[in-house]
Amino acid sequence: MGKIILTGDRPTGKLHLGHYVGSLRRRVELQKQGDYDRMFIFIADVQALTDNAENPEKIRQSIMEVALDYLSVGLSPEKVTFFIQSQIPELAELTQYLMNLVTVSRLQRNPTVKTEIKMRNFDANIPVGFFCYPVSQAADITLFKATTVPTGEDQKPMIEQTRELVRSFNRIYGEVLVEPNILLPENQVCMRLPGTDGKAKMSKSLGNCIYLSDDKKEVERKVKSMYTDPQHLNVEDPGHVEGNCVFTYLDAFCKPEDFAEFLPDYSCLQEMKEHYMRGGLGDMKCKKLLMKVLEKELAPIRERRQQYEKDIPEVLNILKRGTADAREFAQQTMDEVRRAMRINYFDDKEWLQQQAEKFYKD
Fold it and tell me: How far is Cα 307 from Cα 239, in angstroms, rounded to an integer?
């Protein structure tokens, strides 16, 4: 089957810099490298509905936003198969079969599920669909026989649970499904980019995001209000770079050549950090550098998005063609799954012959 990548995002709004450094940027790099036989990238609307069941219009309106973000970062429909999760009914079927191979207690132990439940204040009122989210995600990965899943560190428990389900399925029914490997960001900082307010995670629900589609003025406004070091009250004061969002973002986005272009006072980021730590460097000067670095990264993304926004019907066609292609692949995998599970009744001529002989009376 070869090397296959699968990854995706929940359509609950526009994508932000956390998505970009955590996965999107890496996807573009992998696309350029051409080391994989297939790349599937999907919009996970079914999973988004697990905690937005009463607000389907939010999901519906976000489909195009996410598609535009995919295209604007440089992902190409010529090299990547884009699809919408809900339009692949085989995913629901495989999810049902995999649910039989995991216990409630195992799902309860999943650290990612625990964190997400706490963040959403579900307490005892957890939707069953959300509780079974790891199984749904396992179906996404295994239906497309993904060998590699590029994602953030917070998804490691999900990938491990997928691997467990694959081993269980293959042990019971035969070697059909593929165990995936996780591909984490190479830059340690990118594994979990904090929000602009200094909180551990950039999140749409927390309102601490910089979106890929934000214009230049909006990005500058958000950077100016960014959390730094609360003890760094005066320029002369020694500052801390640990936990300082501005330096965390510079770690994630700044390149060595940016200093020659934007701030030749320093030869590299480490030199700038040392100046800040000993005192004499103001927060605003650091923020101005970050504004320029982010604009250099986001300007071409913004420009591509504006071009795609001029032809929304074609963006929809890209999703439609990709979904049709993905479903054809999914149907082939499900044929193998049903055959392995011995539930391919209408296609199994040998079984039909056995039944005929069993009940035939002369």
Answer: 43
